[in-house]
Every structure is written in structure tokens, then in C-alpha cells.
Amino acid sequence: MARYTGPTTRLSRRFNQHILGSAKALERRSYPPGQHGPRLRRSKQSEYAIGLNEKQKLRYTYGLLERQFRRLFEKAKNERGITGERFLQLLETRLDSVVYLLGIAKSRAAARQFVNHGHIRVNGHKVDIASYAVQAGDEIEVRNAPASRQLATRNLEENRMRNVPGWLTMDSETLKAKVARLPNRDEMEPGINEQIIVEFYSRF
């Protein structure tokens, strides 16, 4: 399945939760998208449908292909700790996700592009792979180039109301950040029930 490039607010309305696009659009139209959306009732779903919806909701949030998403889940399953929580950690500590959380980009899609264009350095080295997994202690900075720094500074100003999570530190003046530690569960996606996703994948 290719990466979703359609109307972003349709996804939020489909899952009845802000995922992509403007949150105001969901407030204006809280019913499902489509011609019959206003008259549709959210009927009781099967366990399979609930698991699929939860999985798709998380996958769309991070903008991953199904193969990427499943591969990351398998990695989490084979590591020590709680599978669901470790899975969320692996998603949150992708470099594009960290750049988004720091406020250097407006969205995860924009953060992916920012990384792919070579604007980010990790521990002093250029990293242009959005899926790069950062570790505790890693230092992240915007490349010392006028175009890179101007774009990052503008985005930080526009995103100044967004709080940087406690496991990251950000210096807006120097455009340098540090991964202090791995995120705890309460610092990651609150609208996701990762256990349902674990149970969904356990069916296969």
C-alpha cells in the first residue's frame, strides 16, 4: 500500500480523532466522510475491525507504509520489554518524528522531507534517512547553512505553542537538541491503544 496522499481531514473524520490536517475540520464535521456521512451511525464493530482501525490510525499518524510499519512491529516484538510500548518508542524515536516533536517542522511529513533534504546532523554527521533511530544521548542539530537555519527558525516560531516532550531538550538559539532519554508511555501518542494493535498482529 502506498503512502497516503489524499485529503488529510478525511482520515481524522474516518477515525473520529485528529490525525492529519486541521483539527478544526473535525470540529466542524464530526461525522464520517462521504455522501452518507451525516446519517451514518457508528455501529458496533467486530474485534478484527477495531484492531484494523487502531493499526491504521497509528500507521497514518506516522505516515508509514504497511511494510515499514509491520517490520518495526516485528522488531519491537523481538526486543525486551512490553511489545506495545517498545513499538511506540521505535516510532517516536525515528529521526523524522523527533524533528517534528522538536518543532523544527510543522508535520511529520514535512519533517521527513526536512531530513531527506539533508538539513539535519546527528552527533556531528549528516543524516538524511528519515527512519534513522535516535538513541539516548544523541545530539541533533540543524545544518549550519543559511537556508536550513532560516527554515528551521521560521518553523520554530510558528510552532512555539507546541511543547517539546520531556525526553528531548531544545535550544532554539543554537538550533541544537539532545535526546535525554527514551520516552515513557505517558509521553507518547495518548489516543492510541497499542495493546489492541499487538492483539491484531498476533492473529497472523
Automatic annotation (TrEMBL):
<dbReference type="GO" id="GO:0015935">
    <property type="term" value="C:small ribosomal subunit"/>
</dbReference>
<dbReference type="InterPro" id="IPR036986">
    <property type="entry name" value="S4_RNA-bd_sf"/>
</dbReference>
<comment type="subunit">
    <text>Part of the 30S ribosomal subunit. Contacts protein S5. The interaction surface between S4 and S5 is involved in control of translational fidelity.</text>
</comment>
<dbReference type="InterPro" id="IPR001912">
    <property type="entry name" value="Ribosomal_uS4_N"/>
</dbReference>
<dbReference type="Pfam" id="PF00163">
    <property type="entry name" value="Ribosomal_S4"/>
</dbReference>
<comment type="similarity">
    <text>Belongs to the universal ribosomal protein uS4 family.</text>
</comment>
<comment type="function">
    <text>With S5 and S12 plays an important role in translational accuracy.</text>
</comment>
<feature type="domain" description="Small ribosomal subunit protein uS4 N-terminal">
    <location>
        <begin position="3"/>
        <end position="92"/>
    </location>
</feature>
<dbReference type="InterPro" id="IPR022801">
    <property type="entry name" value="Ribosomal_uS4"/>
</dbReference>
<keyword id="KW-0687">Ribonucleoprotein</keyword>
<dbReference type="GO" id="GO:0003735">
    <property type="term" value="F:structural constituent of ribosome"/>
</dbReference>
<keyword id="KW-0694">RNA-binding</keyword>
<dbReference type="InterPro" id="IPR002942">
    <property type="entry name" value="S4_RNA-bd"/>
</dbReference>
<keyword id="KW-0699">rRNA-binding</keyword>
<protein>
    <recommendedName>
        <fullName>Small ribosomal subunit protein uS4</fullName>
    </recommendedName>
</protein>
<keyword id="KW-0689">Ribosomal protein</keyword>
<dbReference type="GO" id="GO:0019843">
    <property type="term" value="F:rRNA binding"/>
</dbReference>
<dbReference type="GO" id="GO:0042274">
    <property type="term" value="P:ribosomal small subunit biogenesis"/>
</dbReference>
<dbReference type="GO" id="GO:0006412">
    <property type="term" value="P:translation"/>
</dbReference>
<feature type="domain" description="RNA-binding S4">
    <location>
        <begin position="93"/>
        <end position="152"/>
    </location>
</feature>
<dbReference type="InterPro" id="IPR005709">
    <property type="entry name" value="Ribosomal_uS4_bac-type"/>
</dbReference>
<comment type="function">
    <text>One of the primary rRNA binding proteins, it binds directly to 16S rRNA where it nucleates assembly of the body of the 30S subunit.</text>
</comment>
<dbReference type="Pfam" id="PF01479">
    <property type="entry name" value="S4"/>
</dbReference>
